[in-house]
Specification:
Blueprint (H helix, E strand, L loop, with lengths): L4 E7 L4 E9 L3 E4 L4 E8 L2 E5 L2 E5 L4 E4 L5 E5 L5 E8 L1 H12 L5 E3 L3 E2 L2 H16 L5 H17 E3 L9 H12 L7 H8 L3 H12 L3 H18 L4 H7 L5 H12 L3 H9 L5 E2 L5
Antiparallel strand pairs: 1-2, 1-13, 2-9, 3-8, 4-7, 4-9, 5-6, 5-8, 7-11, 10-12
Amino acid sequence: MKKETRTIVYDEELQIEAYRFEGTRQPFPNHFHEYYVIGFIENGQRVLSCKNQEYLIKKGDIVLFNPGDNHACVQNDKGTLDYRGFNITKDVMLDLADEITGKQELPGFSQNVIYDEEAACYLRPLHELVMKGSCEFGKEENLLLLLSTLIQQYGQPFERCIPECSREIEKTCAFMEQHFAEHICLDQICRCAGLSKSTLLRAFTKSKGVTPYSYLVNIRIGKAKKLLEQGVPPVEAALQTGFSDQSHFTNYFSRFIGLAPGVYREIFSAKGSGEEMPHEE
């Protein structure tokens, strides 16, 4: 069986994360991120669900996720997934979009799965340069050329990528974002929204693509990532973000991010050097 390795590098110059997963079988549950994701399938075949649509992704495909796009994926064959990708925060993307378009506006990708040889020609060399820790300007050049291609071919105003949500659902989201570190019960959320439990669950899931609890867990994972990046120990990050215990936290973090919290923290402690985690299958 192929050995599984997972490598993540944070590029301080570009301020982006680069991922490289090889030999991965792990399914990823329905979730979303607060940042942009641009990924490339090196090998393998998976079923991807994104915003209530299903895709068969395979070698050569590029996946594009806007902040808030809910998605899940599972291996579709007996093989494994080889994947390389980037995570780009909205602040960094705003600066890059301004450089490319001359407008201080966040772009939104109109398609979640594409096959684009031109974009791939920029994505793969960029990823390799970041993983190697290159300091040459070719790295930034490839990033700008990649995003220029994607924005030109698949871009639209970011607001168009945000699903319409009722005032009650937005109140629910705001409540969870404000009280994520606390013990929250469904009764509290329903009182905030002014909806019954069954109505809230149906309306929220239809609007956001995930259940209210899954939305809360995503918020907590996002906050925990930032704490771990600052060097906060996993046990403390779990407590500060509302998880009942470290085991509960580790389980969700590993499922959503693909790495254990301690491993993720060490990546940033190493100041941009990659960490490889071999797993025997």
